């Protein structure tokens, strides 16, 4: 069992419009944009990061906004919903707040003893707010949402699969244990995790396969403390038969990737060095940062990218 994994590090999705995406996460959800950079593999596309004040692992939602991207199609083999933790008693505020901001699909729910509010993002991304007691993580207090009602970080994600057996075994290997089951959904959690430590597996044998596009989760990343722990995890996964990439420097963390039995792309990312490695904490996300290998293209990149109005 991979005791090095304590929960999620970040979730990365795809969007159609950078400005719309930025406005939704900073003005509607009240998160802080902690980094404005570009896609390592497509430097003419933004990579935007949103989270708490410093981009603590377990709080960071990231996006690749690809202009002209097709819309994603919901189905099996994907992360269907991303779940954020909010204070107990705050869903009344959020229901009114989201409604006043034109958010669609708002629906009250309850599952696994949690009160939840379901809603859609700009590209019909699936989101939930879950009331969680005693979440000690601090909400960002510099945005439009009061910190007393604000998002603490992730609660977890819901994966929708045709067959959950092999993925469940993988999660158990990754330090998760099954803690509850309701109908077609099984809940897995890390004991003494980082707060972003719950994975729900929804098994729908007859579901059509998902198609990635705008509104789809590209990958979900799990947190380890440092590079030494990451190398231990990589070796253990490879010894188990998974095809894992070499370690890749992503500037703000080191990453490895592998595909799960259910088709979802997993990443294991380090908590080091963090988002303040090239910007002061007070000014995170204000200026366009470009990876060193693409810095010589800055003039061309800045000409292609549509400026984001804050």
Number of domains: 1
Taking the sheet with the most strands, its summary is:
8 strands, mixed
Radius of gyration, in Å, reads 18 Å
* Helical content (DSSP H or I, runs of 4+): 10-25%
Known CATH architecture = Roll
**What is the strand arrangement across the widest sheet?**
2-3-4-1-13-16-15-14
Any overview of this molecule?
This protein is an alpha+beta fold and 310 residues long. It contains 5 helices and 16 strands. The strands form 2 sheets. Strands 2-3-4-1-13-16-15-14 form an 8-stranded mixed β-sheet. Strands 6-7-8-5-9-12-11-10 form an 8-stranded mixed β-sheet. A hairpin with a 5-residue loop joins strand 15 and strand 16. The protein is globular, with a radius of gyration of 18 Å.
List keywords for this structure.
alpha+beta, 8-stranded mixed sheet, 310 residues, globular, 16% helix, 5 helices, 2,3-Dihydroxybiphenyl 1,2-Dioxygenase, domain 1, single chain
Outline:
The protein is of the alpha+beta class and 310 residues long. 16% of the residues lie in helices and 34% in strands.
Ordered list of secondary-structure elements with their pairings:
Elements: E1 8-15, H1 18-28, E2 32-38, E3 46-51, E4 60-65, E5 78-86, H2 91-100, E6 107-111, E7 114-120, E8 126-131, E9 153-161, H3 165-173, E10 177-182, E11 185-189, E12 198-203, E13 217-224, H4 227-239, E14 248-249, E15 253-259, E16 265-273, H5 298-304
Parallel strand pairs: 1-4, 5-8, 9-12, 13-16
Antiparallel strand pairs: 1-13, 2-3, 3-4, 5-9, 6-7, 7-8, 10-11, 11-12, 14-15, 15-16
